[in-house]
Amino acid sequence: MDIIQSGEIGERLRDVRARMEEACGRAGRDMREVTLIAVSKTHPAEAVLQAYAAGQTLFGENRVQELREKVPAVQALLQDTGQGASLSWHLIGTLQTNKVRYLPKLEGLSMIHSVDSEKLAVEIERQYEAAGCSVDVLLEVNMAHEETKKGLAPEEVRGLLEAIAPLSHLRVKGLMTIAPLTEEAESNRVYFRDLAGLMRDLNRAALLPAPMTELSMGMSGDYGVAIEEGATYVRVGTAIFGAR
Ligand SMILES: *Cc1c(COP(=O)(O)O)cnc(C)c1O
Asked: Is the CB of 178 under 6 A from ligand 1?
């Protein structure tokens, strides 16, 4: 990782929050509708603590193994410094069925962004039921039909929703997408807009006990555009923690 000077993470966080606010302003949205997920993957627990010191309490990781190491490492650091931990974690990356069993035990893990098959959803249901708790999930949609990316095709989402609606230990809160890597944030606008449209259409079909409300979309390069198109979660790594 980059060597990050103390305080630099706080500065970058303030910058990202200011840009989020500007995007909200352009879209006539309230900043409270959009939640920043600081994506700390590959960065050490110390970097998480710096962000926490700057007021950030929600973090994202893309690998189960890294979460299993970092959650207790951050807790230990917080204890050392006498701070009460009130951190939340979201799993934003690909989840393999055989790793689901580790998740209910992870303190503060409150959402899984990457559900894209019935098999995975059923395993989440099974493991959380066994643990006596439940979890919020998003369905990952591959809006640009990129072959290298995981996620459901937009036309597959409805079928999965119908299949998993009866599961009671996972609550489907909304949709997530990873837009193509591009220098031109504007070129991803169509995918963000279409994801928002897809959620509206699906909500009209009323397949779930409660309508979906969350749209996880936008990363360091394009979170402003994503907010303009209705993002409720943006997942920002590089712009906060530096290059990986
Ligand atoms: C790494 C990652 C991000 C953050 O990417 P940046 O470009 O560093 O902001 C967002 N979402 C997912 C799923 C990721 O894996």
From this structure: yes
| Total structural domains within the chain | 1
- Atom 6 of ligand 1, nearest CA residue: 237
Ligand 1, atom 10: nearest CA belongs to which residue?
A: 235
C-alpha 33 – ligand 1 centre gap (Å): 20
Count how many residues are written for the chain.
244
- Nearest ligand 1 atom to the CA of 223 is 9
| pLDDT tens, residue by residue, 55-95 | 999 999 999 999 999 999 999 998 888 777 689 999 999 99
Q: Is 171 in the pocket of ligand 1 (CB under 6 A)?
A: no
Helices (H), 82-219: 118-131, 157-164, 189-205
Which ligand 1 atom sits nearest the alpha carbon of residue 236? Answer: 9
Within a domain: 1: no
Mean pLDDT of 150-176: 97
Say if 39 falls within a structural domain: yes
Nearest-CA residue for atom 4 of ligand 1: 237
Domain with residue 52: its CATH number is 3.20.20.10
Taking the C-alpha atoms of residue 16 and residue 10, their distance in angstroms, rounded to an integer, is 10
Residue 215 lies inside a defined structural domain of this protein: yes
| Max Cα distance, the chain (Å) | 50
Nearest Cα to 190, choosing from 236, 147, 141, 226?
A: 226
92 lines ligand 1 (CB under 6 A): yes
> In the structure, what pLDDT confidence band is assigned to residue 148 with cuts at 50, 70 and 90?
confident
